[in-house]
Each structure stands twice: as C-alpha cells, then as structure tokens.
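Listing 4. Sequential folding, example run.
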Amino acid sequence: MKAFSGLTVNLLEEMHTSFVHSIKSIVSPLSFNAYKGVMGRVAVIGGSRDYTGAPFYAAEGALKFGADLSFIYCSNEAATPIKCYSPELMVSPFYDDSLFGRPASHSDSGTITSAIETAVQTVVNSFPRSHVLVIGPGLGRNENALAAVAEMIKIGREQEKLMVIDADGLWLLSQYPSLVRGYSRCILTPNKAEFDRLVDSLEKELQDSTWDNAEDLRTALLTDLRSPLPETQTRAVSLALGGVTVVRKGEFDLVTNGGDVFKLLYRGSPRRCGGQGDILAGCLGVAFYWASKNTNAAEEALRNLRDASDYVEKVEVPSSLTLEDLSSVYPDLDENFAVSMTKSVTATGGLGPSGFVRKTNHSRIRDGAILSTLLALSVVKQASVLAFKQHGRSMTSPDVLKMVGPAFSLIVDEGNE
C-alpha cells in the first residue's frame, strides 16, 4: 500500500529531541516489583443503547497505552455487547434504558429521581477503584443519564478525581459550563462541532449574565471568544472555563490551559474514521494519571518545552487577558482557585503578581495536563499513521487501536535513547 503523499511513517523523524524528552518525562516506568493497578486504573463513564463502540475504544485504548485496568459504566442494554467486545474490560451498568427512556410525566418523577440517585451512587461508590474518569464516550443525550453524570462530576470534583471529558460529556458541559469551571484536574477534548458548541454556550452565558462586576474584562473575553484566530479563541474558551485544559482537535491540534497555547505541527493520517477521538480520550486518561504522579518532572519539562521544539510551537496570542483576571469575571470561581492563580505563569510567560516562589500543586497539575495531552496526541497520531500505511482508505478505528502499542514504543521506548 503506497503511503499518503507527504505522510511521514515514523513520527520520530520529525520530532525535536527536547520534545521527545519532555513528553517522556511523565511516563511511569515499568518495574518487576510493581503490582496490578499501579500503572493506572481508568473508569470510562459512557455507553448507551445506541452507542457501544465509543466506550470500548476509550477503555481498550487506555489498556493499549499502558493502563493496568479499565472499567466501563454504561446503560444496561449496552453492557452485554461491550462485554462481548473484550474479556479485558470490567463493565457495569448504572442505569436502566427502559426506565430512563420513558417520556417525562408527573407520575414518574419520584421513580426517576430515585433511579438517578441510585445510578449516581452506583458509580460514585466505585470511584476509589479508579485513578481517572473518562466521561462521555457513547453517553448519548438521555436527559436522565446526563443528570446523573452531572452529579458524578460534582462529586468527582469534591473528591479531586482526574477527569477527561469528551463527546456527549462536552454536550453536557455546553449546557452547564460551571460544572468544571476552575477545576484544574480536568481536560476537555472537543472536535470542531463540540468546540463551536462550547463557544456558543460561553458567549450566551456572558451575554445573559446579570453580574455587575468586571464589565471591561467580560467584553474582552467575549471579543476573544469571537476571534477569527483559532489560538486566541481556544485560549478564551479555557479562560471562560476557569483555566481548564482544552484540546482543540483538528488538522493541527491546539492545547492550552488559559496560559500558553501549544500547536502540534504534525497532521497524523488523512483518514478520519469514527472512534479515533475515543481512543485518544482513553490514552489521555492514562497519561494524565502518570503526569499527576510526576508533577515536578512535568513542571520542568513544560518549562523546557516552551524554549525550543520543531514539533510543537508555542503560539503568541494577541490578548491582554490572563488567568489572574478570572476571579473578577466569574463569581462562581471559588476562593482557593483565585488564590492559587496568583502563583501561576501568565499568558506572556511572566510571573504572577505575587512573584514566583514555587508553584502550588494546583498549578503543577495544570502543567501535567498540558504535557500528558501532548504525549497522548503524539502516540495516537503515530498510531493513525501506522494504521493508514497498512490499510489506506479502508482504515478503521480497530486498526488504529492495534497500533497504539507500537506507536508508544516508537516514541517513548525507542525515541532518543
């Protein structure tokens, strides 16, 4: 099979040494002394009557990336098909399709409310088993299931769980952006349609707001949200969500947490089959967990990454807004967030108003979120390239899934030894 014109089969050929060393710094090493679970336990919350493939791709992608265990929490009708896809996944239903799918009526309100509470507790009780939550693949738009997941996100925040939110989880956030606002342990992975939906939601929120404070800052944020420059607009979405890490997927992916904006200068393959985003979400969940265990390494690696790389560009954004402005714009940001931001690096790379003493754990987690995203994107793009080299136009996501391991080895295990 002839490779797509201009497609580099080995991503390492185009990688700058500093980039490879930076993304490798957060990878947890394998050890003969380790025990099952230490390399990561991932919980995927998604899967519904109509969508069983997405949660499988996310959970299996996590295992291929290096996680030890993958759990899936889905609807009861999705559970059996997903179990049949793989014996490696632990699949548990948390709601009844026939009950949640009933038309809303007053007589059912008590039954539905009780069912939602039971669904929430079913998943929340299992939180201690998992290091990271991947929320949204195959979740669907059932309003009762979404209500349950919204409560799970709230409780997950209280318990400081790491989260990756994708697909229908992003649709939920477009309805209720405050669910994740200011939460540093969260990464969003929107594609074009999901990103545009978030922008529309955040614009409307600002326009309809009755908040009387920081009018000039709100106007500036609205201007950035409407910017024709994708880097400025992506950074504005992160700012409007309180500095949550945002991965804007596209031909060239953009990654930001409201400070620096990083642009990956590599396309991957031209085949855009469904499921690749779900694989990325699962891989990213594992990488985020690893980074959370190596926050000091992530901080130093990201600082080095800002200096030089041919593979990822730090884009200068023409905006005066910084993370320190957020607490003035959004009154729903908590006090702890506002305090921790005073020690964060600003958009221009300077120091926060208190000066740099040592980053808070909150800020180092945000560094880790950026670095883990770059690692996961690199591996999945390389996997897509390898799969496309073999299958061309007939490539589908199972082909990409098979290449996650070889891609990881090329970049992490063999790159720049």
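-- end of first protein; second protein begins --
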Amino acid sequence: YQRRVHGDLSDRLYFEELSLERVLDICEYENPKGVFISVGGQIPNNLAMPLFNRGVAIMGTSPNDIDRAEDRFKFSQLLDTLHVDQPAWRELTSTEEAETFAAKVGFPVLVRPSYVLSGAAMNVANSDADLHNYLCQAAEVSREHPVVISKFIIGAKEIEFDAVASKGEVLNYAISEHIENAGVHSGDATLVLPAQKLYVETMKRIKKAGRLIARELHITGPFNIQFMAKGNDILVIECNLRASRTFPFISKTLNMDFIQLATKSMIGMPVKALSVNPYDLEYVAVKAPMFSFTRLAGADPVLGVEMASTGEVACFGEDVHEAFLKALLATGFVIPKKNVYLSLGPLLQKLELLDSVKTLVRLGFTLFASPNTVGFLEERGIQVTVVQPPSAPSPNLLDMLRGKQLELVVIITNAEDNSETLAEGYPARRSAVDFGIPLLTNSKLFKLLAQSLERRQHFHIRSWSEYLQMTHFFR
C-alpha cells in the first residue's frame, strides 16, 4: 500500500483484481463509509448491484438506477417512456424472433449484450447467417442479462454527451463529435471538441435528451450518453452512469475539472452549475486512438463496434486540421509525402471520396490503386497505377509493401460490410500493418487527412497554458 504523502492522495492503494470477492475483502478490512464505482470503467460499474445486495454503500447514483441504464431492455423501455428517440429495438427471446425483427426493419441490425466491457460481442449483422452467429456470441458473454437487437442506422454521425449531475440535475456537460460515422466503438473513434459539424438544433435536442435522462435516472455523479444523428434527428445509443474515457480530455480542453465536480456531488458537498461555451474557445482539440495491431499477430486491423484500441492521445490546434495532424503524429502515424495506395470500396464510397483523391493529386502525390478503383479514377481523368492484390502473381501489393514502396495504404471498410467482403480485404490490411506502413480504413478519416494536408502545411507547437491564454475568459 501507499501511505499518504499529500492531502489528495489515498491512504492506501491496493493492487488487486477488480472482482466482487476481492472488493468485499477490502471493504471488510477498511469498513468504508461508501464505495465509488463510477470512475474505474465498466468492470467496477458491473459490481454495483452485487455490492449493493451485500450491504455495501454505493456513493453517487443508486445501483438500481445504474441497472436501469446498463440493462439494455430496461433502458430501451425507459427511453420509450420518456419519448426520447432510439433505433427500433427488440429484446432477444429466440433466434426466430430476432430474424423476424431483422426482416421487418431490414439489415443491418446491431446485436447489443448488457453489462459488457468495451463492446464485447457487440456486432453489426448484415444477414441471417451473421445474425445467428452474433446472437450465439452475445448470449455467451451476457448470460445473466438480456440481449437486445436494434436497427443499425447507416451513415449516421456519432456524438458524445459527457456530463456531471447532482440529484438528477445536470451541472456541467460537453458535447463532442466523432470523425468516424456510427459503427466505430467510442474507444476507437477520433473525437473533436468543440464539435465542428453539428447543427444548433441538434445540440439543443442532445442537451434536452441528456437532461431528461439524468432526471429520470436520478443521476448523481459522472455519466456519458452516446447519440447518433442524421440531419437534425437524434437517436440514443446508450447511457453509461460512470466517467467515460473522454472525461480527462474534456476537462483539459475546457479547463474544468469534471471529476472534481463529480466527486463533490457524490459525497454531498455543495455544488453549483458551471459551464463554458465551447464555441468561445480559440482552439480545437482532437483525441485519437492508439492500436497495438503490430503486436497482435493475425488480428484484422479494422474498426468496428467492439473496441480494439489500447491507448489514446490528445492534441490542440488552431483549427481541427492542425489538431488532427498533431494527434496522428502523436500516435506514431507517419505523414505520407509521395506514394499512396487506394482501395475505395463500392461506387457510392468512391464518389464520396473523389474530391479527397483530387486533393492528393493537387498536392503532388503518386497514386496506386486496386483494379476496381483504378477503373473508376481513370474514367474521371485521374492518373493512377494499377496494383494487383496479394493473391495475384508477382508483382503485387505485397511486393510493394515489402519493398517499402508505399507511404500510406487506404483500404476503406464499412460497418455494414459482410464477412466475405471483409475477408477479401484482410490480406492487404494485415500486410500493411506487418510491414509498418500507415493504414487508414475509414472514409471520414481519409477525407479529413486529405483536407488537413492541403490546408495545414505547417503548424505551431504551443503549451496547454498558451492555448488557454488564446481564449479571453481563461486569461
């Protein structure tokens, strides 16, 4: 254990597993007035009801209300009661009912277990075969709690609402947006604060829904709600009654200690509502994930609804383009200077990314591409060299990767891609990782990278305090 050396450090620090048995042992020894479970991620949050049922006092939000948020079925019912929109959903009772629901709303659908860590066994099903396979996985990891299936909205933007409440009233909040569309786990997503591409009406609706949910769940302490938006329509994905991994990011960006405010509210100290208008900030912050695919032999380096990242970085900039490039560099990403390989997916995806490809041409990049992408680009007057896939005879993409002839590989995937499509592109994605070539698989990230390379040839390096000084109310 660690003895107290300063007023804000613990008396003792235990290095033990976060299990019910071990926590109960510590409670028996320490005899605490209460236990905080909302600042350690999903695992301690899952202990809320087991600890409560054994007489341990839980600080902050009631365990019964935590259960109403974590249990997918109860939470979906709660949203219906509040008339807060969510994707069409159904509790799983049998494979046949799940298939009937999928046929009614149409594929893709999202399989969502309750009380799971990092989106474990959460999957987007694009066919009956996918659905059956994913339901079996979900039932295995969530045996004691219901599995819900819901309609997956293609092309929706994902938005995070992080907040602190006291007795159901929101004290402070931050709204950040994902660069990637919905379908990428929030832990793997690239976040921007302040949000750059949200309508004012969308922001209003998010705040209103967040306050309704906070009141209904009598939240005291930190919480996070994930939304998806299409146009001005917002839909709730889920609510976590704990501090998310975004809490340190928003605290640093807004220069407000969210976790201190949450702690005071949970122990009953006097608190007052605080807020900063993020649009008064003279800078933008971007949080980017870090991955360890190079250490995971054979793992497919593709983003989905189950978390894969093992860390994250955050950087500030004068605009989103500067902050984004800094964040990429901080993850170890090497900015390309000449040779880029493109495999842009189906026709609609190619059309969406055409302007980004033209940007690379203006910047002087030499383009290489898969046979399907080459035909599309050449029809539009773009000079590009065809590269055969790894399964083709040499010379092929594998030879170019092995010879370090490429500086960036762009192979676009989508959450709604079926297993066959993903399997087809796996050798190329995996080879890029194995040979240490930067890889992008998300269309929104590629678009922002192209824009950033064009608009930000140089950028400034400043300290955190220097960025704060740029905003008048922090001076």
